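Narrative of activities, Objective 1.

The group set out to show that a structural description can be obtained from nothing but a protein's sequence at a throughput compatible with the screening campaign. Below is one input-output pair from the validation batch, recorded exactly as produced.
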Amino acid sequence: MATPILVRFYHPERGNCVGVQLDSTVYEVTEHIRSVGSFLRHSAGHVQDAILGLETVAREAGAEYPVSLFDTVPQAFVPHWLAPCDDQEVWAAGVTYERSRAARQEESQDGGDIYARVYDAERPEIFFKAQGAKVIGPKGNVGIRKDATWNVPEPELALVINPAMELVGFTVGNDMSSRDIEGQNPLYLPQAKVYKASCALGPGIVLNPSAEWPQTTIHLQIIRDGQEMFTGEISTARIKRRMDELLAYLGRSSEFENGVILLTGTGIVPPSNFTLQAGDVTTITIDGIGQLVNTVMEV
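Output recorded for this entry:
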């Protein structure tokens, strides 16, 4: 049986919809599941049963579409994917890969000792990234800041978590970052990370309440004017932090009534002489999870 994938999409005849993808078909289930948040709330305490119920609802859906129908640039009168989130906050963990620690030490004007310390510390770095309604979906435009000179995508595995802080599934994330701004001073992190179109997710949530990291590979490709400017990959086996560790710290003294999404850090870092430009196309592929393609714009 195919692993169910929870998706959001826009259809000009039906508006914003919730769907379940099984193999190459998307079944609309909006009548039964109004939002990603409603499914995450429903799943609290019985994730596997909720997933099995979702498959049943999908098979009884009245409308179904080929997956290829939504693989288009978002436009008002064209079917397209939406980011697989709505009322959820998106948070992010940093310095979870050794390469990320090294890169931030290199970019930091004060030598980067703060990043070495957090890499080895008991408490992980976790910070707010985006409101769900502002997250960019597949084929949408991600932003680079006008006042930054060193902008990069950060390809990341994203965890989708219900209000009980239980893992429900995975999706693909892009944590856009202005490295020069963060490098000037770590206190500038919110400005380097949180701005218009700085977060993209999609295409869907692969429903899998695993207790362990999926053993997979994250790939990044950047294309400019038809030419490959950068490519890189890394295994999720290189993530230093345990999944339960990140979930525990994210949930401390916090409450996410509609669930939450956590980006888990990047281990792919373009060289320091590379920066994104408007019009670049980023493709993030996580084997077994999905592929997220976005075009870069200046904001």
